[in-house]
Design a protein that fits this description.
Length: 441
Amino acid sequence: MAAPHSCLLRAGWYGQLECLRGVWLALAVALCALALAPASDATSASLVGINYGRVGSNLPPPQAVLPLLEGLGIGRVRLYDPDPAVLHAFAKTGVELFVGVPDQSLAGLAADPGSADSWLRTNVLQFLPDTKIAALTVGNEVLTGNNSALIRALLPAVQSLHGALVKLGLDKQIAVTTAHNLGVLGTSYPPSAGAFRKDLLPYICPILDYHARTASPFLVNAYPYFAYSDDPKGIHLDYALLEAGYAGVPDPNSGLHYPNLLVAQVDAIYHAIAAANTAAARVVEVRISETGWPSSGEPAETAATPQNAARYNSNAMRLVAEGKGTPLKPAVALRAYVFALFNENMKTGLASERNYGLFKPDGTPVYELSYKLPRDNSTFGGGAGGGSGWRFPGDGNATGGYGNDGINNGYYDISAASADSEGKWRWAQAAVAGAIVVLVA
């Protein structure tokens, strides 16, 4: 910033005029770049996302999801398959998608690299650029499953899709990764003792090499709920619910202090990566692909209540939105996808599996969140025609089923590209164009 000041010291009025013209021209170019940038780029700081599962017989159409996301202030969504109707619904909304590659596709992708080209043509390329696809998540929790053929196919399938994206010049735009269950850890407590299961190391080490080479994130599904349910006497409920007032737990080996169980789980993964692959540990980022708390469950699942679910998910959103890292990685902002958008009545297993949603299928909230995400978490408005116009049947109040005492109840009033902000961008573009004309004259 010293250059503009020093150049004004040139002798004579003409030299000062030339200097000022140079300064204003540089400023105009910078403003022009900002004014012409898409609105979604202005919200790239978004850290909180949500999982949109569709294992239900009574779920609304994908167009109905958009007002719910806007009401929450969430513009990052993880899908579990590349359903065309869903991908079309998100077109021109600015919502950033992580698109799942189903387990059943892995064998073909691993066996024939050419099949990745076909898979991308069918499930990705035809939706670009209107639909904002940021990553492909190949399989889900494959390494902790019992299908050995699927485990062997995981990395080859990931590499096949990444190679196909490289040929298309899309590898910098779309990452390829996979999501792991926290059960990949053989040791998780204390976090500094975190280590992967020895039987999984032959698969995890090459995956870490891949992440380091491609700068793709290591995704983990982290649920303090399960840890608390397994050991309610050994884990304090407030520690599992991420309550800010809880005293926390020290790590006796590292001396680091852990205020809640979620960041302890993430750091256990970081320590496991360092133990398995020192080189990868320096560059691989851990992101939370799923985290949540059920609002209901079996009679024995006493912690699965609406009150606990509201506390956990509100605290998780607040923790992530603050942009802070973990005790081990304080400079790396935590990123997380809440699980899940809807209760899904066709999921198998314990009753809690069907009760992770923030919303009921009719769009009404299962419980009220105590935390409201900041505006810059949303990516809505990244393209023309944002907003579906779809509304749930009801009394015409148009809240998208998300009530919070009358604050920001409209579909679009927390959008990063509301009518007002769009007007500001148009004004900025016009002003910059005028400034450039004046400067040229």
